[in-house]
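New to this. Explain the following:
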Amino acid sequence: MKTFSLRFFALVLLALIPLSCKPEAQDLSGPERAEIREEGMKALNEAPAPGLEELAEAERAGTWLSGMGLLESSIREAAGDFGGALIAAYRELAVAYGRGLIEEDALEEGLRNVLENPEFRQEGREDALKAAEGIVEFRRGNWEAAAERLKPFAAAEDPDGFVRWLILVCEIEGGLKGGLNNEGLRALYSSLRSRHGFFPEYWRRGMDYFSSSVPVAASYAENCINLAPDGPFASVCRRFLAVQAGLGEGAGDALKTRAETETLIRTAVAGGNPLLLADLFPLIALQDNSYTFSALALLDEAASRPLFRDWFRSEADKAQGRLAERLRFLCRDQGRL
């Protein structure tokens, strides 16, 4: 029988990203998705062979490239750490899912492949099966069962390693050590930021864990959105920010973070294309709130350019209500030349 490889399993799923990419992720064209896949392959096949320590340090320094999780999986598999290899491969796919690059079904399919493969019931490979079972329980929200299955893999793991994050989430979500009211657990969660700042789900869960401090929770929500504006966690984060800004949840779809607004305006100004700014109209049409005021301040600077000011004026003539009022404010004559 042909030997089944975790690395092969993960690479196959990574290669499927263009097929399972969410249709609403419009910012990623076919060539760009191909580039992401190619980048992951290059990290696996062409890079000098780093060790686990080098990969961990790169992550702590804020570096994450598609394929790094698969590289870690390959290293662990070669060392006979099949459970760790499975967890590393899962992380690669969880990051891709969190960034809106693959559907959730791709994650489920990969886990099923391991759970149903008879090779992982053979001596020496059982750890991969146990790790997969732990992740399945994690994804189902069975926190105590997930923690029980995953804890054996944490014994030799870095304090800020991915499996430690998985277990910490189980402990917080399941109330296994005091839950959300335990300040020590929240502090521990925050301490994992440098290693997992590339991971949208880290920020999404942190938003809930720090909900007792609105500024901190809002920063987690904004980081999640900025990292993956079209990812599966962005909508709930926008709704949270909308409520905290004094708006209803329904305003979440219109809300954009300051970073998103700055990027959009910068792109429009650099390309001399004011039409791009129409994406900000739902935001500036909202009732008074900090995100709308921030956007208006940034748009006011763009309106100092005649091309943009004239466009705001033409759009104001077609708009109604609060949007028309704010567009007229932007195209006002205040001594601009």
Summary: Residues 11-34 have pLDDT under 50 and may be disordered. The two ends are 77 Å apart (CA to CA). Residues 82-98 form the longest helix (17 residues).
